Structures are given as structure tokens and as C-alpha cells.
Amino acid sequence: MSRGLLFRLVAIVVVSLVFPLAFTAYGLYSGARVERLALEERERQMQRVLGEVSAGLREINSGGKNGDALDREVRGVLNRTLAGYPGIRGGVFLPETQRTVIGGELKWYDYRPEVWPKEGRELFRERDPVIREALDTGEAVTRRIVMYRGEGLVHALPVTVGGEKAVAWAEEVLQPAIGQDRVLRKWAFLLTTMGFLVALASALYISGSLGRGVNRIKNGLEQLKRDLSYRLPPMPGELGQIVAAINQLAQGLMEKERLEEQLQRSARLAALGHLTAGVAHEMRNPLGIIRGTAQIMAQEYNHVPGLAEDVAVILEQADRQNRVIRELLDFARPAPPLMQEINLNAILESVLSFSRKFLEQNQVNLVTQLSPDLPQVQADGEKIKQVFLNLLLNAVEAMPTGGTITIETLATPDGVAVSFGDTGPGISPEARSHLFDPFYTTKSDGTGLGLAICHQIVTMHGGNIEVETGDRGSVFRVSLPRSPERRDAGGTLDPGD
Ligand SMILES: Nc1ncnc2c1ncn2[C@@H]1O[C@H](COP(=O)(O)OP(=O)(O)OP(=O)(O)O)[C@@H](O)[C@H]1O
Ligand SMILES: [Mg+2]
């Protein structure tokens, strides 16, 4: 997904910028060619000039002439030749006398550099290396040099004056447009290339960060598919708004699922209530008779060996069934709660006071974190005790080889919350959806009523019970409001008789 995006962005950048870049590069190339041709043309012109000057100088006969007289003749040749080439100026350097003779538009210079004005001396310094090079190598040299207010072309040619070696040079100020054009083209190319690189880098960056965000959302949605309680981490910008909307949607879905589940449970419990109350009632009487008869048998036939043990088994099973029936009836036809102002810490303490020994026997370590400023709640203390006991028992039963139970109470904005955490094996998602269903059990001797009763009692109080579970243990959290508005939370059953 992000790779496709990257490809498209890079393609857009390349397609939209590659043509301007190619045109600029071509413009540069052809501009440079035009410039080169123009310079070659100027150079040829100067070669022509110096050819003529060289021919003129060869004619000079130096025999017996002093320096000044020779200079005059040289200057004459220069001026005559240069007069035919406006814009070109030049000079001759005579190494023999170390004098420089200047002609053309440079005529304001004296031939002695030491008396030249400052600009003249600086100018001479620029072309001096060109003259020297021609003198040293004995070959024509052409260079672009910095000239007073601009750029110029200098061409130097070794010549002979009266049999002596000398160097003649011609020079011309170049059209400023040539230099400017070159600078402009250089900048145009530089800026277009930079623009191209910046656009490419931006495309890579945008597609990268967008791709990462999209991937995070994609992974989050995968996770959400498995676990509706998962929330996508917040993100900046538009993707963040999408994330917030997805999280909101998930929250709504979860709420809907919870309500549906509650509704289903209410319907199931109502139907079950009618049935169980009737069956339980019917079973109670024969069970009473079985129990009574077994007791009489034990008394009347106490001389029969082994009978007492058998009767004990009958009585034990009858008692167990009686307990189940009592729980069933309690569940199907719960007594209305006796609401009082109670402190849940105190209720917990009383449950723990008689459970501590039992916990010790089962190698369960108890950790309590009871909030000292827990507000009072309106609740039926006995029923809440039953909830806590059931949760405690389940936690112990989940850790057959021992472990730790952590009980925590804390004040919440609308009441109190009590949580029971264990270090058992956790609960599978499949089992989690049935935990609060009556008769759902994974234990050979369980009734599967413990959590159903807890749920019934808590909802009767206007609170709720939730479970958080993973691979390492589960936490059951009971939340109770400060004072419940009585509501039929789907837990109160009406058995009908
Ligand atoms: N703390 C826990 N850790 C792991 N599984 C649990 C825990 N609490 C409950 N369960 C699972 O939920 C099932 C239902 O619990 P519930 O208390 O309703 O019934 P039970 O404990 O099986 O039977 P009873 O409470 O009647 O003895 C249990 O059988 C068990 O599989
Ligand atoms: Mg139980």
C-alpha cells in the first residue's frame, strides 16, 4: 500500500520535473555552445590582428636605433593595424629592453608601467602572466581575464622585432551579456536541479510518513478485529481524525455488543427462572425424604458393617444437591436487597477475616490495596459479601498450585470499584463470552452459578462487573454507584409462582 503510494508520488515528481530539467540542461548546453562559437570568432579576429602586427614588426630594422626610436616604430605598426579593428587594443612587450609599447584604445597609457595610473598597473598585472607564458613557451596563448569593469579576452603571440624575440598581444572587452548569460544559465540549472531534488525528497518523505500512518491504522484495524476493546494510538493531522473516528466507532460497537449481551442474558434468565424454580422446588422434597431415610437407616441398621460409611456418602451428596437447589432458588427468586450505607473496605475485611486460613492452605498469597478514603455506598452488605466470596473462590480455584491474589479498592467519579486479580491461567475469549451465563462451568464439581449470581447482585445494585484477562491471570472488577437508582438490570428473575 505504502509502496504503491511512494511509486505514484515519485512518478508524479519525475514526470512533472524531468522535462523542465531536460530543457534547462539543453538550454545550458546550447548556450555554452553559442558562447564558445562567439569566443572562437573573437579569437580568430585577434589572430588576424596579431598576424598583421607580426608582419609589420618583422619589417622593422632595429639597426642602431635607441630604445625610444624603436618604441615609436613599434607603436606606429600597432596603431596602424589596430585602427582597422575598432574595439580591439593591444601592445608589444620587448624583453630585450624590458619595455612595453601600447596601442589602440589603450593610448592613454605611457609605455612605462611605473608611471601608469593605478588602474593601468592593475590591468597590466592581469595580462602579464599571459604575455610571459607566450614568451616562455614560444606559442600563442589565449585567456579570458578580468578587465577593468568586466571580462575580456587576451591573445598573445610570440613575434620578432628586428630579429629580437618579443610578444605582441591583442585584447578585447567581452560583451557583458556573455558573462551574464552564463551566470544566469548556471543559476537556472542549479535551481531547477535543487527544485527537483527537494520535490523528490518531499515526495519520499510524504509517502513515507503517510505510508507509516496508513500501516499503523491497518495493523490497528487488524487488532481491533480480534479485540474490540483495543484502541488505535493517537496520531497527528488528518490521519489522527480518522483514528479518532475509528476508535469512536469501536466504542459504539462495544457498547452495542454489551447491551445486546445483557438483553440476551435477561431473556435467558427470565426463561430459566420459570424452569429452575419449578424443578428445584420439585427436587427439594424427594431429596429431603432421601436424606431422612438414610439417617433412619443409619440408626436402625447400625450393626451392619460398612453401612455408616455408605450413609455418610448419601448424606454428603444430598447436602451438596441441597446447596445447589438453594443457590438455584436464590438465583431464580432473589430476595430484594436490604440497602444500607456501607463501607466496602469493611465488607472486604469481614470476608477476608474468615478466608485467610483457607487462602494459606491453598498457598495463595494475598495483597490488599484498600483506599483509605473510600466513599460509603448504598448496598446490601450480605449480598455484596456473597459477590466478593465468589470472586475470591474463583481466583483460588484458578490457581491450584498457589499464586497471588491482589484486591484493590478505589474511589471512582461515580462510586467505588473493587478488583480481584489473580495469577491464574487467564480466560480464553470463548469462555469469556459465557462467564456470566448460569451453569457455565469448566469445573467438574462447579455449578456455574457463582458468576451468574455475582452479575445478578451487582446489576441489582445499579453497578457492573467486568473482567480483564490475558495469558497471565485475570482481574474481575466490580463497580458500584454511590447510591443506585433502582433499575431492573435483567438480573431480577420472576419465577412466576
Ligand atoms: N479467576 C478466574 N480465572 C480463570 N477462570 C475463571 C475465573 N473465574 C471464573 N472462571 C471461569 O468461569 C467459570 C464460571 O465461574 P462460576 O463462578 O460462574 O462457576 P464455577 O466456579 O465453575 O462454579 P461454582 O462457582 O458454582 O463453584 C469457571 O468454571 C471458570 O472456568
Ligand atoms: Mg465459582
Distance between the termini: 64 Å
Low-confidence stretches: 107-111, 486-497
**Rg, alpha carbons:** 54 Å
The total beta strand count reads: 12
Mean pLDDT: 84
Helix content: 55-70%
CATH top level of the largest domain is Alpha Beta
Structural class: alpha+beta
The third-level CATH topology of the largest domain is Beta-Lactamase
Number of domains: 3
CATH superfamily of the largest domain: PAS domain
The share of residues in extended strands comes to: 15-25%
Helical stretch tally? 10
Q: Which architecture of the largest domain would the CATH scheme give at its second level?
A: 2-Layer Sandwich
If strands are numbered along the chain, what order do they take across the biggest sheet? Answer: 2-1-5-4-3
Helix and strand pattern: HHEEHEEEHHHEHEEHEEHHEE
SSE topology sketch:
Elements: H1 2-59, H2 67-83, E1 88-94, E2 99-103, H3 118-137, E3 141-147, E4 150-161, E5 164-173, H4 176-226, H5 237-300, H6 307-332, E6 340-342, H7 344-361, E7 364-370, E8 377-379, H8 381-397, E9 403-412, E10 415-421, H9 429-432, H10 450-460, E11 464-469, E12 474-481
Parallel strand pairs: 7-9
Antiparallel strand pairs: 1-2, 1-5, 3-4, 4-5, 6-8, 9-10, 10-12, 11-12
Bound molecules: adenosine-5'-triphosphate (ATP) and magnesium ion (MG).
Keywords summarizing the entry:
binds adenosine-5'-triphosphate, alpha+beta, Helix Hairpins, Heat Shock Protein 90, binds magnesium ion, rod-shaped, 497 residues, Beta-Lactamase
Would you write up a description of this structure?
The protein is of the alpha+beta class and 497 residues long. The protein folds into 3 domains: 2-180, PAS domain (Beta-Lactamase, 2-Layer Sandwich), CATH 3.30.450; 258-330, Helix Hairpins (Orthogonal Bundle), CATH 1.10.287; 338-481, 2-Layer Sandwich (Heat Shock Protein 90). 58% of the residues lie in helices and 17% in strands. The protein has 10 helices and 12 strands. α1 (2-59) packs antiparallel against α4 (176-226). The radius of gyration is 54 Å and the shape is rod-shaped. The two termini are 64 Å apart. The model is unreliable at 107-111 and 486-497 (pLDDT under 50).
